[in-house]
Design a protein that fits this description.
alpha/beta, about 35% helix, Rossmann fold, twelve-stranded mixed β-sheet, about 20% strand, 12 strands, disordered N terminus
Length: about 300
């Protein structure tokens, strides 16, 4: 495989402002083009794909498999992307770039194979994108129904996702962001709650709508956690839950009031089987606390996947 040019040189494909997409067919030379050129996506387009950022880690593959149902339920493509970036592009050799592309393509192939192995019928799109992870994924979010990432691993996405990358995406993404963590202590025979934060904020209606949709999709009950501080919050919460039950009679909803924030609540209730916590963008700063540490247990972490909605 040869690379027909690289950033930092005078080659025809070298000068770019936006990330570069690398696509190839086995045995052919990769063709580089500006990311999303000609795709014509719109953030309100019903055909906008579910995007999964992969990096070769098991966590990324878990995220890709989790995202299958999201794509199928919307009848949209599952778009698997790998973001590759060389810090000092001018000093990079052709061999450096070739290895980077080969690793990226192997990462995408591994995730694609894992999705196909499930036997679920879903349309798959794949891209290799040049640029920084934050910039590229935020750009992807403009044309996506959802962005999905794995929360542990060794690559560029998974290694940073508890830190600045996840925080930036949670705050600046134009679409919902799912950060998927495989449970360290699986609960045998238990489906796992969908936890929805209920609070007096403008974006809370979106949180509830997504929670109900996820509960239906994953055949799971909803734990509605009221976290506001007003008096009579239990009565208010119960009235809200009664209204949701009328709209979603097939979803089991259990209300619980808490004076703690959602991260603290989940950390104090680790014995409950929670598969996904859904929060609004105002709670994006608590994402790292909800997901929890990579390797050793610490108090105050919920250790579950998180969906940040707008």
């Amino acid at each position: 495989m040869t690379i027909g040019g690289r950033p930092g040189t005078n080659d025809p494909i070298a000068v770019f402002v936006r990330p570069i997409t690398c696509t190839s067919v086995a045995g052919d030379k990769p063709h580089l083009r500006p990311a999303n050129q000609g795709m014509g996506f719109d953030m309100w387009n019903a055909s906008a794909p579910v995007v999964v950022g992969v990096d070769g880690s098991d966590a990324a593959i878990d995220a890709a498999i989790w995202a299958i149902d999201e794509a199928v339920s919307r009848d949209v493509p599952l778009r698997i992307v790998h973001v590759t970036h060389i810090e000092d592009q001018r000093a990079a050799t052709d061999d450096d770039l070739r290895l980077d592309v080969q690793y990226a393509e192997a990462s995408v192939r591994a995730a694609t194979a894992a999705v196909e192995a499930t036997g679920t019928q879903v349309k798959i799109e794949t891209e290799v994108l040049w640029g920084t992870v934050k910039t590229v994924l935020i750009d992807e979010s403009r044309n996506a129904a959802m962005i999905c990432l794995g929360s542990v691993g060794i690559g560029a996405i998974a290694g940073k996702v508890i830190g600045s990358t996840a925080a930036t995406l949670a705050k600046e993404s134009r679409c919902p962001v799912a950060i998927i963590r495989a449970p360290r202590r699986p609960h045998a025979g238990r489906t796992g709650w969908i936890v929805a934060v209920v609070e007096n904020r403008a974006d809370n209606e979106s949180v509830i709508e997504h929670a109900m949709a996820e509960a239906r999709l994953r055949k799971a009950p909803v734990l509605a956690v009221g976290v506001w501080q007003e008096e009579h919050r239990e009565d208010i919460l119960n009235r809200l839950v009664d209204a949701w039950k009328q709209l979603f009679p097939d979803v089991h909803v259990y209300p619980v009031a808490s004076r703690a924030g959602i991260a603290q609540f989940l950390g104090e209730n680790k014995d409950e089987s929670v598969q996904l916590a859904i929060v609004g963008s105002a709670d994006a700063a608590q994402v790292a606390q909800i997901i929890g540490p990579h390797s050793h247990p610490l108090t105050g972490h919920g250790e579950c996947s998180v969906l940040v909605v707008r």
